[in-house]
Design a protein that fits this description.
Elements: H1 5-17, E1 21-23, E2 29-30, E3 36-37, E4 39-41, H2 50-68, E5 73-77, H3 82-92, E6 96-99, E7 112-113, E8 121-129, H4 133-144, E9 148-157, H5 161-169, E10 174-179, H6 180-189, H7 195-206
Parallel strand pairs: 5-6, 5-8, 8-9, 9-10
Antiparallel strand pairs: 1-4, 2-3, 6-7
């Protein structure tokens, strides 16, 4: 769920401004999964814009303290959330670790990089939530290492039902700065998309795996 409507609309605004999110109903993108999509999101782009990355950093940090209290450590999910996660940890004056998709096959064979101790409270930072599978894989690794995952905060979520189900199943609390619903509202208000394109965007979000561009 989003923290509040104002933050959701403001975050959507800045993501559209720097093309971290692109909407293209008439010329859909193809995701790595093979899905056709009228939206593409790459929140790593915000790291190249200091005022915007500072806004995201400070908003995330303050919302973490408000929702979870101050944890012992911040964990970023590799690779997309390493940068913003580290900025949030720096703002809060906390240690930072990050979680790989899987353990390295060489060296120390770490999946979790950085120092954390069993029993510490950790909040996980993500850049984007789609199905939630990779995000929850990171939570699993942290829990197996003996860390207490208080919850997760992400910049943006597509708002898929499957993600909500996955997080509920794993008993992980998720909050996001913005989501698909507020993004579309902002895009319409600023004439980024037309009213006629909204139905296409809505249809895709309702059933992304089966959606075909027309």
């Amino acid at each position: 769920m989003i923290f509040n409507k104002h933050t959701a609309r403001k975050t959507a605004e800045v993501l559209l401004q720097v093309n971290a999110i692109k909407l293209s109903p008439s010329a859909p993108f193809t995701w790595a999964s093979g899905w056709k999509s009228p939206i593409y999101c790459d929140n790593r782009i915000i790291l190249s814009f200091p005022p915007i990355r500072n806004y995201i950093r400070e908003t995330m940090a303050k919302d973490i303290e408000k929702q979870y209290g101050k944890p012992d450590v911040i964990a970023g999910v590799a690779t997309g959330a390493i940068g913003i996660g580290m900025l949030v940890a720096e703002y809060l004056g906390l240690p930072f670790i990050y979680v790989r998709p899987e353990a390295k096959s060489h060296g120390r064979q770490n999946q979790i990089e950085g120092f954390a101790q069993k029993g510490q409270n950790v909040v996980v930072v993500e850049d984007l939530i789609s199905t939630g599978k990779s995000s929850l894989n990171a939570v699993k690794a942290l829990r197996e290492a003996g860390l207490n995952v208080k919850g997760m905060i992400a910049i943006f979520s597509y708002g898929f039902n499957v993600a909500n189900e996955n997080f509920e199943k794993e008993k992980v609390t998720l909050h996001t700065l913005s989501n698909y619903e507020n993004l579309i509202e902002q895009a319409v208000e600023t004439n980024y998309v037309s009213q006629s394109e909204v139905q296409t965007l809505t249809d895709w979000n309702a059933n992304p795996s089966e959606w075909n561009a027309i």
